[in-house]
Design brief:
By secondary structure, the chain is an alpha/beta fold. It contains ten helices and 15 strands. The strands form three sheets. Strands 3, 4, 5, 6, 7, 14 and 15 form a seven-stranded mixed sheet that branches. The chain has a six-stranded parallel sheet with strand order 10-9-8-11-12-13, with helices on both faces. The protein binds NADP nicotinamide-adenine-dinucleotide phosphate (NAP).
Length: about 325
């Protein structure tokens, strides 16, 4: 049998545990070209909440659907693969969609975070879209999250001055004391605009934007001429019925400051993935890139862990250990 977590109700307002339901179904049987996988780890990603509102660049979700998730899964012969198995113990997936993983002696879980989706997103977003250079100032939103913490550390590794935005003192201390951020700010502060000015006296060259919404509005006036805004995600709108209003300074400031604002999706970089994973692995091994990871045990814990993630409860990558 297959234990799985499906959507019980589509949320209106913030997502809650009652929007999910655990159920036991027959083991899926693979069709032509498919294989049966067993889930070891499932990734928790805020963007899956956006799918509950309808189509993004990924399909929308409906009641009864298994909650989607990137997974580290095992084939029947023990081969380890990166897959999209969802919140379930077993999945029947097209063989062509699976990528073998060589854990190389390191923790398997890293392949869902720092060496997987989030590390690669930070890497291509910062280096290819943001084109960071030594001596520049890089500002990162959701900086203590899975993607943001890696983006900030990569900026530090490339010789930039790094400022992170996070909600709590504990997160900010961690960023400054363990991850080498030069400064951090509470983005919820009523004096945010003034705080940004004080923290980035020479302006911002690269804004790694995981959030969008009013925060982007507050950052735009601090951007330097020829600055780059890396549009990575829009966390401000995922757990709500409607997106918050967009920034007022677009396109005026984009023109006067000659800014480049560019969105990207990490899957477009598949051809450069191997090089990126090799470089990220090198920084992790040398200790230059600190890994922040939280592992929650058991599929049944996934809904609560996901709801808490959207409320800012996570530090770094949060994932679920589904089976041994
Ligand atoms: N473009 C791509 O290819 C790609 C790929 C992967 C991920 N992404 C995007 O990257 C972003 C980060 O994803 P992640 O998986 O690394 O999540 P994450 O940052 O680990 O988790 C969410 C964190 O965001 C912060 N947050 C939540 N709501 C916020 C808001 N309204 N304003 C500011 N901060 C907020 C919270 O931290 P605080 O406590 O500090 O509020 C929370 O801990 C998302 O937008 C995601 O969609 C994009």
């Amino acid at each position: 049998m297959n234990r799985r977590i499906v959507i019980a109700e589509l949320p209106s307002g913030a997502v809650a545990e009652r929007h999910f339901r655990a159920e036991t179904a027959p083991l899926p049987s693979p069709g032509p070209g498919e294989v049966l996988t067993r889930t070891l780890f499932a990734s928790l990603d805020p963007v899956n909440r956006a799918q509950m509102r309808g189509r993004t660049y990924r399909d929308g979700l409906d009641v009864g659907d298994v909650m989607p998730a990137f997974t580290i899964s095992a084939l029947e012969d023990g081969t380890l693969v990166a897959a999209e198995g969802g919140w379930q113990e077993h999945a029947a997936l097209p063989a062509s969609s699976l990528a073998p993983i060589d854990a190389g002696g390191g923790p398997l879980s890293h392949h869902l975070g720092v060496l997987g989706l989030n590390g690669l997103t930070a890497y291509f977003g910062l280096l290819d879209v943001g084109r960071v250079a030594a001596g520049e100032t890089v500002l990162v939103s959701a900086a203590a999250g899975a993607t943001g913490n890696v983006a900030g550390q990569l900026a530090r590794i490339h010789g930039a001055r790094v400022v992170g935005l996070a909600s709590t003192d504990a997160k900010r201390r961690l960023l400054e004391e363990r991850l080498g951020f030069d400064a951090t700010l509470d983005y919820r502060s009523p004096t945010l605009s003034r705080d940004l000015k004080g923290c980035c006296p020479e302006g911002v060259d690269v804004y790694f934007d995981n959030v969008g919404g009013p925060l982007l509005d507050a950052v735009l006036p601090r951007m330097n001429v020829h600055g780059r805004i890396v549009c990575c995600g829009t966390l401000a709108s995922y757990d709500a019925d409607a997106a918050p209003p967009g920034p007022r300074a677009v396109p005026g400031l984009l023109i006067s400051r000659r800014l480049r604002m560019e969105g990207f999706v990490v899957v477009d970089y598949a051809d450069q993935r191997a090089t990126a994973v090799r470089r990220l692995t090198g920084w992790v091994k040398s200790g230059e890139l600190v890994v922040l990871e939280e592992i929650v045990n058991g599929l049944d814990a996934a809904p609560a862990a996901f709801v808490d993630l959207l409320a800012g409860g996570n530090v770094g990558k949060r994932l679920v250990r589904v089976s041994a």
